[in-house]
Design a protein that fits this description.
The complex is a heterodimer of chains A (about 110) and B (about 120). Chain A has about 110 residues and is mainly β. Chain A has strands spanning about 5, 10-15, 20, 25, 30-40, 45-50, 55-60, 65-70, 75-80, 85-95, 100-105, 105-110. In chain A, strands 2, 5, 6, 10, 11 and 12 form a 6-stranded mixed beta sheet that branches. A 4-stranded antiparallel beta sheet of chain A has the order 3-9-8-7, with no helix packed on it. Chain B is built from no helices and 11 strands. In chain B, strands 2, 4, 5, 6, 9, 10 and 11 form a 7-stranded mixed beta sheet that branches. In chain B, strand 5 (about 40-50) and strand 6 form a beta hairpin. Chain B is globular and about 40 Å long. Classes of the chains: A mainly beta (about 110), B mainly beta (about 120).
Chain lengths: ~110, ~120
């Protein structure tokens, strides 16, 4: 069965600092991988996705993620965090682009001024 | 603009009552999903549908049902509400019209409290 692990429940960074949010997945074949962001009281918004090809994918709001098959990881990064990035971030995996997504438990990001 | 809407946004009910949460999307998406969000669990899939008359159970389907009589709507019914079903419920959709990207489009959520 597919599963997604986000090891960090909470992360706090200073504004302007770099950010890396970890995501590990369990799935036998090549997965379809996603990162979503949820602002307080809102639904989820897609940041980026990986289906195939280049293992470094760019997303919205200056985020990027790297797919590492050998480590079963899809970590999210941003070189310089803004206060508006404070939110909860979810990694998700699917069999294919049309299939149901399995979400990790989420990482809540706090940004200090 | 096309959108996905959920109603009600907030509801308080009593144990044992039947509750229906509505989800309506105007993208003509084939795929629709219901998730519940609880602290420490992220989003867990309740039910999903890949088209009219198609419904499938997700990982936490006990106590919930859905029906898909048209493309636009996937109502979620709690037959006999329990306190364990207090949660925030999200509806999402995906499908052609967005380049088959696999992206889920989420509603704003329905907060349900069962007393």
């Amino acid at each position: 069965a597919q599963s997604v692990t986000q090891p960090d429940i909470h992360i706090t960074v200073s504004e302007g600092a770099s950010l890396e949010l970890r995501c590990n997945y369990s799935y036998g074949a090549t997965p379809y991988l996603f990162w979503y962001v949820q602002s307080p009281g809102q639904g989820l918004q897609l940041l980026l996705k990986y289906f195939s090809g280049d293992t470094l994918v760019q997303g919205i709001k200056g985020f990027e993620a790297e797919f590492k098959r050998s480590q079963s990881s899809f970590n999210l990064r941003k070189p310089s965090v803004h206060w508006s990035d404070a939110a909860e971030y979810f990694c998700a995996v699917a069999h294919d682009p049309h299939n149901k997504l399995i979400f990790g438990a989420g990482t809540r990001l706090a940004v200090h001024p | 603009d096309a959108e996905i809407t959920q109603s009600p946004r907030h509801k308080i009910t009593e144990t044992g009552r039947q509750v229906t949460l509505a989800c309506h999307q105007t993208w003509n998406h084939n795929n629709m999903f219901w998730y519940r969000q609880d602290l420490g669990h992220g989003l867990r899939l309740i039910h999903y549908s890949y088209g009219v008359q198609d419904t499938n159970k997700g990982e936490v389907s006990d106590g919930y049902s859905v029906s898909r009589s048209n493309t636009e709507d996937l109502p979620l019914t709690l037959e006999s509400a329990a306190s364990s079903q207090t949660s925030v419920y999200f509806c999402a959709s995906s499908g052609p019209g967005h380049g088959n990207t696999g992206e889920l489009f989420f509603g704003e959520g329905s907060r349900l409290t069962v007393l």
